[in-house]
Amino acid sequence: MTAYRYVRTGRLPAQLEGTQWVVQESELSRFDVARHAIAATPRERSGGDPVVRLVRRLLEGDENGSWAIAQEALSGGATPTYVYQELFAPAMRIIGERWSRGEVTVADEHRASVVMTRLVGRSGPFFRSRGTRTGTVVVGAPAGEMHALATSFAADILRAKHFDVVELGADVPTAAFVQCVHNVNRLLAIAICVVTPISRSSAAELIEALRISEISVPIYLGGAGVDAAVAEALGADLWLPDISVVASILND
Q: Which residues contact 236 (CB under 8 A, 6 or more apart)?
């Protein structure tokens, strides 16, 4: 059972063949050396970088093993926001980079994304903070942007900061996005997520449409597909290197 636990949390690399987990002898030797190394750092003693372990489990499509790594972090004192920003998001970024280099297939990337989506669903209750709600932030991705995980990460983190959130997800047509914003009560801000550079033009179109419709709240732009210069060029009020920036600004 100890060996099984090491496999399911990604500490001991293994491949699922049928109903059995198969460990290569070389991996077992490497694990044994690391486990008994006198000069090992605390991270090495704990089984290695949790992000790397999570990447392995996600690519295997192993939901329970992936969730065990998240629980390990939470039980060690990490906040849910930390798990999103320092564990979940980096793992998905690594998988995306590996896909772009041809190291994993589209199917591998999609399988990992599905597992991550389920982990976010499990994590949601941890972000439901008590207390008075400050106002509402609309979070979504422009037309053509098919990645929804970034909006889910942002929405949950904002909920933990005492904001109500209207989460629109991925690939939202411009007209529908604008209409939704106009129907929101106590609107404080709009956060637009752009993960792929190809979606920049639709983000610019969305920002322009929001301006024309006389939306007066700040419009923020974030995600791996933009930086500060791009966000300014597309017409956003502010670039978001981190969704917590929104919470800090609005709470001030």
A: 192, 207, 219, 220, 221
Residue found under tokens 């709470």: 251
Rounded to 10 deg, the angle between the 106-123 and 50-59 helix axes is: 120
Contacts by 185-189, CB closer than 8 A, 24 or more apart:
185/136, 186/135, 186/136, 187/135, 187/136, 187/137, 187/138, 187/217, 188/134, 188/135, 188/136, 188/137, 188/163, 188/217, 188/250, 189/137, 189/138, 189/217, 189/218, 189/219, 189/220, 189/246, 189/250
Q: Domains along the chain?
A: 2-125 (1.10.1240.10), 131-251 (3.40.50.280)
Distance CA 74, CA 2 (A): 20
Summarised one tens digit per residue, pLDDT across range 188-214 is: 999 999 999 999 999 999 999 999 999
Whether the CB-CB separation of 202 and 145 falls below 8 Å is answered with yes
The owner of tokens 């001991």 is 12
Q: What is the pLDDT of residue 12?
A: 75
pTM of structure: 0.77
- The values of phi and psi at residue 201, to 5°, are -65, -40
What's residue 18's pLDDT? 73
Residue 219, strand partner residues: 190
Cα dihedral 117→122→128→134 (10° resolution): 0
Give the tens place of pLDDT for each residue, 218-235. Answer: 999 999 999 999 999 999
DSSP summary character for residue 198: G
Tell me the two tokens of residue 103. Answer: 């190291």
